[in-house]
Design brief:
By secondary structure, the chain is an all-alpha fold. It starts with a helix and ends with a helix.
Length: 127
């Protein structure tokens, strides 16, 4: 039997984001369960499950995009954690954020770097 988009998406979400992803979905269940379902089915079931890019490449793209947007700190934090979870090194993530200074200007890169600093502190227990 083929797994549903939802089941595939939920497996990907758990593999990539773990507890952080579960918290986002749980918080959305209270206000808009349809949005939570769409994130799981489309975002993780359809997009993150495509074989053309590995998860590390997908998370690098997500970190770059969210850094460049400059106003998505909670989502950026989730994807910074996810990038570390799927094998990105701290140096690689710093370079991605630094490169965004050339595309999204320095404030976006500064905010992204501070978000990364906070993620690293939380992961090490120094928050």
């Amino acid at each position: 039997m083929n797994a549903s988009r939802f089941d595939i998406g939920l497996m990907q979400l758990n593999k990539i984001d773990g507890e952080a992803g579960e918290k986002v979905i749980a918080s959305l269940q209270e206000i808009c369960p349809d949005l939570a379902k769409n994130i799981i089915e489309f975002g993780f079931g359809d997009i993150y499950s495509r074989p053309e890019l590995d998860l590390k490449s997908r998370e690098i793209a997500a970190v770059a995009a969210l850094t460049a947007l400059g106003n998505c700190q909670p989502q950026l934090a989730v994807h910074l954690n996810a990038a570390l979870n799927v094998g990105c090194s701290e140096t690689e993530i710093k370079e991605v954020i630094l490169q965004m200074a050339g595309y999204a200007e320095f404030p976006a890169a500064i905010n992204g770097m501070f978000a990364f600093k906070q993620v690293l502190e939380e992961r090490s227990g120094n928050h």
